[in-house]
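Can you please make up a protein's amino acid sequence together with its fold in token form to help me picture the idea?
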Amino acid sequence: MSTPFYVSPQQAMADRAEYARKGIARGRSLVVLQYADGIVFVGENPSRALHKFSEIYDRIGFAAAGKYNEYENLRIGGVRYADLRGYTYDRGDVTARGLANVYAQTLGTIFSSAAEKPYEVELVVAEVGETAEGDQIYRLPHDGSIVDEHGSVAVGGNAEQISSYLDQRHEDGMSLAEALKLAVQSLSREPNGGEREIPAERLEVAILDRTRPQQRKFKRIVGRQLARLLEAGGASTATEAEDPEDDE
């Protein structure tokens, strides 16, 4: 009878982490930025049906890079958690921090389990506050750790280079058009230092807008509204931020 091949726990965890990182790196990057009136989600996504960004609850948005079927399961679980907690207690008890903790426990359990492969996903959970100081952005890597981010965050294949670019250029109080322009510029950068053009039809854009009168602050930016913001490259107007023809 042959002796089983021994792998140290440290090496096993390192191998699982490398496996997950390689899977995430094959996906397209996305960025999440704070702007004057909320939080904007921007990513390259040619699909109109398989979304990277979604609404979880009134003031909470979800973004994910990596394997679609895995982060879609996590998104659905998050919606169920938020609905149940809001119904059982109070809508104000549903927070991004609580949701991030639930996701962290799930990802951490899967990552440390030898019975199944680690999830090839990286998540961002964001909540818009009454003011910019109240905004919350949490990044959750594949291993279930939680990183509290401020200003901007990038996840996906080229996240390190994009994050460096955003850290140097992102400013507090940017308009929506300015933040969108910066996000697209960061996503357009190639690993070799070059740039490419990303047409509007390949972009997925959503916002959490604290100025919306509705209780639900999540809104997708599509069509003519997105084209106008991309062309503006400057201050966006209140009309652009609340164009009724593009509301969900």
In short: The first helix runs from residue 9 to 25. The beta strands are 30-35, 38-44, 53-57, 60-66, 121-127, 136-140, 147-149, 152-155, 203-209, 218-221. Helices lie at 9-25, 68-88, 96-112, 159-169, 176-187, 223-232, 238-241.
